[in-house]
Write a structure and sequence with these properties.
17 helices; globular
Length: 333
């Protein structure tokens, strides 16, 4: 509800999407090539303009879809729904989704896609992943990494991820230069912005590293049984790959901020992975570990909310009920 009735001032990028919505609605010679956004997002804006020219409708519909996709995924896949709901807010996923609208929609499709992966419904999973790319082109990363996440996970795999992460972190400047040359851009990031954000990015990396290590403490790689991999083992391997990919892109994002955005696709799944990892912890230790995870995430939320509120622009939060009312006036009056 808060995502649906928020003002366009909530979220750094929200105002540009609202402006795009209005421009698309007023464009009498509409064509996809006229706009820099992906076809899915552009088409959504065009269809919603047929219902109402009020840009709040875009926030209402996208806010509903994003929260629905997260809620449905948590309900279907989480071992602890209450914990996942808390983590969704405490890990700043919620405030992120109030800002990065297009990528949040893409993440919503990806979460629904992973629901299908767990059920071994490959066609519908691929379809949902492709839908995600129609709202944010970086979602192709998930399709590229999809095959990797289906492979068995061992301690050798864990070590390989660590080595690759360290190499990419140390050589991030060279990697950035190579990507800039491939994409035909002068540079991938603003050095002034990155200098101001460096300390906050390190906090994010330390937070990610602590969560990954805690998860592997209770969800270590295991050898598959002689009879082959069970569904539980496959799910564990999938989650272990996702954790390491999350850490890899967060590490890259310390010095090249735009690459940190790629971590959002994998970080979204962590609200499911932590409850899954805690399944193996016996009581009463599980309650203490659960509180420990919550404390780490809450501390991170408070640090980012106080020290780096400009990251997502969701603090302070404002509502816009008058624009919501205008939607119904434009439809029924």
């Amino acid at each position: 509800f808060l995502a649906m009735v928020r003002s366009y001032t909530v979220g750094i990028d929200t105002s540009q999407f609202v402006t795009a919505y209005r421009e698309i609605g007023e464009d009498r010679n509409f064509s996809f090539s006229s706009y820099r956004y992906e076809h899915g997002f552009t088409l959504l804006c065009k269809i919603l303009n047929m219902i109402s020219p009020e840009s709040q409708l875009l926030l209402l519909v996208t806010g509903f879809f994003i929260i629905f996709s997260v809620g449905y995924t948590v309900y279907k896949m989480s071992s602890d729904v209450a914990l996942s709901a808390f983590l969704f807010v405490a890990m700043t996923n919620y405030t992120l989704y109030l800002n990065a609208m297009r990528q949040a929609i893409a993440i919503g499709f990806i979460l629904l896609g992973y629901c299908q992966v767990i059920q071994r419904k490959w066609f519908s999973a691929i379809f949902l992943f492709v839908c995600a790319t129609e709202f944010h082109q970086s979602a192709w990363l998930v399709l590229l990494c999809f095959v990797i996440t289906l492979l068995p996970f061992s301690w050798k795999t864990f070590t390989s991820y660590i080595v690759v992460t360290v190499i990419c972190f140390v050589g991030s400047a060279q990697l950035s230069a190579s990507l800039s040359a491939i994409l035909g851009k002068e540079r991938l990031y603003d050095p002034t912005f990155m200098g101001a954000n460096y300390f906050g990015a390190l906090i994010r990396l330390l937070f990610t590293l602590s969560i990954v290590l805690l998860c592997f403490l209770y969800l270590p790689p295991r050898r598959p049984a002689s009879g082959g991999r069970s569904n539980l083992t496959r799910t564990a391997s999938l989650y272990q790959h996702i954790l390491m990919l999350w850490l890899l892109f967060v590490a890259l994002g310390v010095r090249v901020e735009i690459l940190a955005r790629l971590s959002y696709y994998f970080g979204a799944m962590v609200i499911l992975i932590i409850p899954f990892a805690l399944r193996s912890v016996p009581q009463p230790e599980r309650s203490y570990v659960r509180v420990g995870f919550c404390a780490v995430c809450l501390a991170y939320f408070l640090i980012i909310g106080i020290a780096r509120p400009e990251w997502h622009g969701a603090i302070p939060y404002h509502t816009d009920f008058s624009s919501v009312a205008n939607i119904f006036r434009s439809i029924f009056c």
